[in-house]
Specification:
Helices cover 48% and strands 9% of the residues. The protein has 13 helices and 7 strands. Strand 1 and strand 2 form a beta hairpin. Helix 6 packs antiparallel against helix 8. The protein is globular, with a radius of gyration of 20 Å.
Length: 263
């Protein structure tokens, strides 16, 4: 009898949590504000993972609220609310994966998120969290849900896989209300970061992200022309004539952890 009552209590608790889900994602914004350091004139950020691991309850509580959302509730949201939810889920559960393995990083056993995979699988293929009613992987969130359901290439400047060469992790959560502004800001910021993207005497150099997901940009050069000002700092190389003639190359990706030490 006690077991039945306990299970019923959990069910009611999860239902209440789902119904009261905060679409402003304020709890995640608070976590990010506390543990993400933005630097290089706002172009980059780093995470204080040891501090986050020591004070993980707010993150765990927020992620539990994501896990409690049922598919029917998710489907009732706007397009923007759904995408914000999924981006925050990807970024939040990535943070959880790192702090769940913080001892490996502190001991030197791990240097990168890629070191957290199994013998025959990557860390992105691990089913370590629940989302929309089932155990999920980070690959499922990115490739099956986000890329599968949304035609939005700017997500590649918003999803952060805990690597130094990733776009910056915002010190605020994405929300449906602000999503358009946030995604545009992320793409401009990413392309304005000269350690990752830009124009030099050899042509246009880009993050490997644009190579890996080239198909999402429906004509990479044409897509980038929209952001030629961010890539060129407003120099003449950004005008249509010069931009069209520039060669494109992709720079090496730094997979080291996006922590304070690797800034």
């Amino acid at each position: 009898m006690r077991a039945i009552l306990f299970i019923l209590g959990l069910v009611f608790q999860m239902a209440a949590s789902a119904q009261s889900f905060d679409p402003s994602h304020t709890a995640f914004t608070n976590v990010l504000n506390d543990h993400v350091e933005v630097y290089d004139e706002g172009l980059k950020s780093a995470v204080n993972y040891p501090e986050l691991a020591q004070n993980r309850k707010p993150l765990d509580k927020y992620l539990a609220s994501l896990s409690a959302v049922e598919p029917r509730q998710y489907e009732s949201w706007t397009h923007e609310q759904q995408l914000a939810f999924l981006i925050n889920a990807y970024n939040g559960f990535t943070l959880q994966l790192i702090i769940d393995n913080i001892d490996k990083f502190e001991s030197g056993e791990a240097d990168s998120i890629r070191d957290l995979g199994g013998l025959f699988s990557s860390p992105w293929e691990k089913s370590f969290f629940t989302l929309l009613g089932e155990k999920r992987t980070l690959d499922w969130v990115e490739h099956e849900k986000i890329r599968g359901d949304f035609d939005e290439p700017r997500i590649h400047a918003a999803l952060v896989c805990a690597a130094a060469s990733c776009p910056k992790l915002r010190a605020e959560a994405f929300t449906g209300k602000l999503l358009e502004t946030q995604l545009e800001n992320q793409m401009i910021t990413f392309l304005s970061d000269r350690d990752r993207n830009g124009i030099d005497d050899k042509g246009i150099y880009l993050s490997k992200i644009f190579d890996w997901y080239r198909e999402d940009f429906d004509g990479l050069r044409d897509y980038l022309r929209t952001y030629s000002g961010a890539l060129s700092d407003g120099s003449g190389n950004g005008d249509n004539k010069n931009f069209q003639s520039l060669d494109i190359r992709f720079v090496d990706y730094n997979w080291k952890l996006n922590n304070l030490e690797n800034r």
